[in-house]
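dumping this here before i forget
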Amino acid sequence: METVGSRLKRCAAAKKMTEADIAAAIGMSKPAVNHYLNDRRQMAFEHLVTLADIFGVTTDFLLTGNTAPPPNWIDEDELVRAQVAGINGPKLTDADYALVCLSRAHVSAGPGHVPPEEHFYGSLAFNRAWLKREGVNPAAASLVRVKGDSMEPTLHDGSTVLVDHQRRDPAVRRGIYALRIGEEVFVKRLEKVGDVLVITSDNPTHSSRALGGRELADVEVIGRVVWQGYTFRDS
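structure:
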């Protein structure tokens, strides 16, 4: 059933206006506009008049839907596509999101992987507020692909993990880290017990190991894993 809010949404989508654009047009806050668009509150008539003029419709159409819609009126499917594309949602800005680079290198959750010469081929956007809350500096982080199943079910083969290069000491906090042993790169669960580095896999079919003394000279902790992204594929 069509409502005032749904007609406002479809008019806004047709004009490619965001909630922020509507808020600026009528001098209201974005949360208030969200309430109007979702029919949780009734918009003042003076604001409907302003928006009707912007949308090119009559106030009667917004209130009742009885008069003819504008030529650029979109159907429900188009509205969903517009909302997914962000037309009726927030605009992404550099102030809100930071890019973290995707590395061509892999980290092995298995027998070990010798990475090619590392370089970056893309990036993903992360919310700055989330990064700050997690204590991650995007300039000191990277995204790498997991290869192997030794960290199942925690980390999946083929998943992408966010590595915080500023957290490199498992003595401070145990957890999952990317590390290099010799020329091989791994992703494992690390814990420092005295002068011994305990390296374990979450998959019980894979063995654990403990390194100490001179063996630690060949170990470089690259950074702590703080996030995982995974695409589900049909088997």
